[in-house]
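Researcher: First entry.
Model:
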Amino acid sequence: MCNHVFLQSANNYITNATYVALSDSVVNSQLTLRPGEEITVPINLDGYRSLRSFATIAFPIKFIKSTFNMNGGVTYTKFPGIINNTLNETENVMYSLGTVLASNVSEFVDFTVSYSANFNKVRNQLVKERNDNYFQHVAGLQLNLLSKNGWFFQNDLNNQFYKGLSEGFDQIYSLWNMSIGKKFLQDNKGELKLSVFDLLKQNRSISRNITETYLEDTRNEVLQQFFMITFTYNLRNFGTAAARAVNRAAGGNNR
């Protein structure tokens, strides 16, 4: 069993001071805020804290020649900020849990089954309507098969699920990559592989940013399905050849 605890604290943390106008407010000769409009400027504040704990335990499962791993952890982060000249602190607590089943069958069969879940609680000291809970999980399956004559098959499938984000951001989708190829040449130094990325055409990019004053959900455009052919040549004796060259040079300098 393995345990880790990390603590981080920062003085003069770079954060923001936000002013939200309740009525027409003159900031300067060129800027007037209408009710509901806001202005934000960077400032330095003490009070940033981050605590992360992580524990894992693993044990063998002999009848399928595999290792089973369980892990869990808690992460706590506090962000200081200023809203309308009042100190505001946002706290985010994330609870994580995961399992991994990894094979150790042989050089010809390799698989990994994994699952991880994260549950987040966000609490804003001043703006209670920005309190939030959200959940994310990732379930994965990897399978690699290799035949004695050099043919191989690789499969990587994972399912991602988001719940509790802003409207339109809750998602569930699967990313499936697959490839088939052949090892050849002396000592299988050469490899020719055909790969397909995002077999189901579902790839997406979703993320959540937590700050001292707001929550932000973002969606980015990402590359979806494509095919690729690759040829790889492994220079397995490069280290030995380099060592011989160094030894020859050293011998020459000694003469």
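Researcher: Second entry.
Model:
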Amino acid sequence: MISAFIADTEKSLLLLRVKELEEHHATFRDSVVCAFNQLLDLKDISTGVHSTRLAEWALRVARKLDIPEKCLYQVEVAALLHDVGKIGVPDAILKKTSALTAEERAIINRHPEYSWSILRLFSGLEEASLYALHHHESVDGSGYPAGLKGHDIPLASRIVSVIDAYDAMVSNRCYRKGLPHEEAIRRLLASSGSQFDSGVVQTFIPIAEQEAAEVFAAAGTSTAAAL
């Protein structure tokens, strides 16, 4: 009886220790994610704000597309840190106000690979690293870095691709002004089925319609800005 009690006690203590370690790991992982997002803010304030907005949108789209709740953390991290690889892109290219040369474009197109190479090093972020790697793939196979097509592209990557493109289009950049909401939606629809996943586009549009005014107000622009 006593030996059985001791064995049960030791087992309970071991399970408690395992739970504590798991919680510590999760806390550390979340801290790393927040730290990288802060690095994006330091690199380019618009990139950090852009990523935070995308994380919120990605979760909403993912839930509407019935991605299991247990998978949503990976989707959220991928949306939040998909551009973390831009830390490795020189500011002279990232903030260039004129057209990029072919060599400069090739460098900036490596940022998904840089994102993957960073995120994959952290235990528990392996899936998110793959989603970030493929967020510039196109459903017709013309994207990068792997030229994946259709459903070979992870659904989370297809989600990030759509919301990333919309937010980039409507946001002001050092080299151009943001597009009006209606034009950004028109371009998403025009590229639906070629660059973008049609189902993701149709799922995201109502969310964009609902939040357009808030997004443009935060950017200090107008939803009806001139082209």
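Model: Note on the second entry: The first helix runs from residue 2 to 43.
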